Request: fold
Amino acid sequence: MIIDKVENFGLYRFGPAWQRAFEFLSTLTPDSPDGRYDIDGDDIFAIVMSYHTLTPEKAVFESHQKYVDIQTVITGAEGFECAFSDELNVITPYDADKEAAFYERTSHGQTRVDVFPGTFVMLYPHDAHIAGLLVGAESKLVKKVVVKVKIELLELEH
Reply:
């Protein structure tokens, strides 16, 4: 998992796919419609969505195998919890059609971070995560984007 400011994306030398993802992020505004945005077909795409944040008790951990997630909020704020997927109990095994596995929450090994506009979280396939969590005591509307990048497109530049 990487947590950083969007402006620092260039510190991570993951190649052209990484660059394209952040170039796309720079085009979004609070008025960007919800929905799927193809950046490079199924290799790199984004999903913009709006919803109300919720309590952790109403959420489950998920992980993916084919894509890394780059997640940020456009408006509002949301909490994330992360844990290593191999340390959680599987609720639903990996389903290639849904590109996800689901896990029950445990009381150990979790990291919590709040994401605001201008910050991002990048999640690897081994990072089970819960997004959309309350920041503060009340549910609030958040507009966010998840950019999906096929893992093999990320390359370490020297």
User: Anything to note?
Assistant: The chain is about 5% helix and 50% strand.
